[in-house]
Design a protein that fits this description.
- Strand 2 (30-35) and strand 3 (41-46) form a beta hairpin.
- Helix 1 runs antiparallel to helix 2.
- The relative contact order is 0.35.
- The protein has helices at residues 16-27, 49-61; strands at residues 2-10, 30-35, 41-46, 67-75, 83-85.
- With 89 residues, it is an alpha+beta fold.
- It has a 5-stranded mixed beta sheet with strand order 4-1-3-2-5, covered by helices on one side.
- The chain has a single domain (2-80), classed as Alpha-Beta Plaits, CATH 3.30.70.
Length: 89
């Protein structure tokens, strides 16, 4: 089950991507995360339903120092087995 996330707030410059990578690895979730030029963070998370729901819940809080104002969730595409931090889009 893959989901596509757009996370808005104070989510860049606070370790969001690396923290999400660690959280995804801990939960066995694949996918990717990257900063966007508009100041948001974009991610695709893929795994079993419970693990994906848990990482979405985590994304609504983020790491210490982040302020998450909004998380948009849509269906994602493809299968992802590793979790990567991608360059800014």
């Amino acid at each position: 089950m893959a989901k596509h996330l757009i996370i808005r707030g104070r989510v860049q410059g606070v370790g969001f991507r690396e923290s999400m990578r660690r959280e995804a690895a801990r939960r066995g979730v694949g996918g990717w995360v990257r900063n966007r030029r508009d100041g948001s963070v974009e991610a695709v998370v893929d795994g079993d339903a419970a693990a994906v729901a848990a990482i979405i819940d985590w994304a609504r809080r983020g790491p210490p120092g982040a302020r998450v104002d909004d998380v948009q969730v849509a269906d994602g595409e493809g299968r992802h087995f590793a979790f990567e931090v991608l360059p800014t889009l």
